[in-house]
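Hi R.,

As promised on Friday, here is the backbone we talked about, encoded as structure tokens. Could you run it through your design pipeline when you get a chance and send me back a sequence?
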């Protein structure tokens, strides 16, 4: 697979060079020739595709270390239970190795009006399967005339991921919600088949930094504004230290009546805000 990918990127590089040479000549015949071939599509701005490939994937490039299934990615998400419900906080950067694809990814998936999911790992995998989970939850409500529990929703997602174990899925998600007569519940599920119930999770490449802030400032009796600020500050500090995390910090509050999107803050503005507080 690695050799095939290298060959594909090599062919792309050759086609880009041919396109550039023809564009410099600038004749009408050359322009028509370019329009009749696939090269008239916009090509990625890669001067050395092989170098990009080496920096975006792990493994040694042989059949035993298939890079197509082990691409480098990063994120920071967290969730914790306190006396007022659950706070979820996420960043918004999508990256692949050193390449930053987007700064505005929505990493908190709104599964139902009472359920939220976070995404870490492959963006396409998380978005697709968590939206699929939303459809399954809605079907459950129609059949049973009551909303699905957090435990059952997380089990549905876990069963899907476990059935695809070893097929290349890359997912590390939290499912959070409020159950009638029970209260807030928080579960962590990943593509390795793990499903764990807990009260405090942080997932992604920036999670060690987020855990440091979270452990230092967490108290079960936090007020809602205090809990939201703790989640916001933890994600900010993770983005400051982890190059694969960044963009915006989104904070959600899960409560008895559903969930509320509390805030979306640019990490640059948060940086200067917190720096001013230190002085």
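Update: got your reply. Pasting your designed sequence below so it's all in one thread:
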């Amino acid at each position: 697979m690695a050799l095939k990918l290298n060959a594909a990127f090599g062919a792309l590089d050759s086609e880009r060079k041919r396109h550039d040479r023809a564009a410099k000549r600038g004749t009408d015949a050359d322009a028509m020739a370019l329009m009749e071939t696939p090269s008239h599509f916009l090509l990625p701005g890669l001067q050395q595709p092989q170098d990009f490939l080496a920096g975006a994937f792990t493994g040694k490039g042989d059949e035993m270390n298939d890079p197509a299934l082990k691409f480098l990615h990063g994120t920071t998400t967290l969730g914790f239970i306190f006396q007022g419900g659950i706070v979820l906080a996420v960043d918004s950067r999508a990256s692949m190795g050193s390449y930053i694809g987007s700064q505005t990814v929505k990493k908190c998936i709104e599964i139902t009006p009472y359920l939220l999911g976070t995404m870490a790992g492959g963006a396409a995998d998380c978005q697709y399967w968590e939206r699929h989970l939303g459809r399954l939850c809605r079907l459950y409500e129609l059949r049973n005339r009551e909303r699905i529990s957090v435990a059952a929703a997380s089990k549905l997602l876990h069963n899907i991921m476990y059935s695809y174990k070893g097929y290349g899925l890359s997912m590390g998600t939290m499912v959070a919600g409020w159950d009638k007569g029970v209260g807030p519940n928080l579960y962590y599920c990943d593509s390795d088949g793990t499903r764990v119930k807990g009260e405090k999770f942080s997932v992604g490449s920036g999670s060690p930094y987020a855990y440091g802030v979270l452990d230092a400032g967490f108290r079960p009796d936090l007020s809602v504004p205090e809990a939201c600020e703790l989640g916001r500050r933890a994600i900010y500090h993770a983005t400051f230290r982890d190059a694969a995390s960044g963009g915006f910090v989104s904070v959600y509050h899960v409560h008895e009546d559903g969930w509320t999107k509390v805030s979306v803050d640019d990490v640059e503005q948060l940086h200067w805000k917190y720096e001013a507080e230190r002085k």
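One thing I noticed while checking it: DSSP finds eight helices and twelve strands in the chain.

Thanks again,
M.
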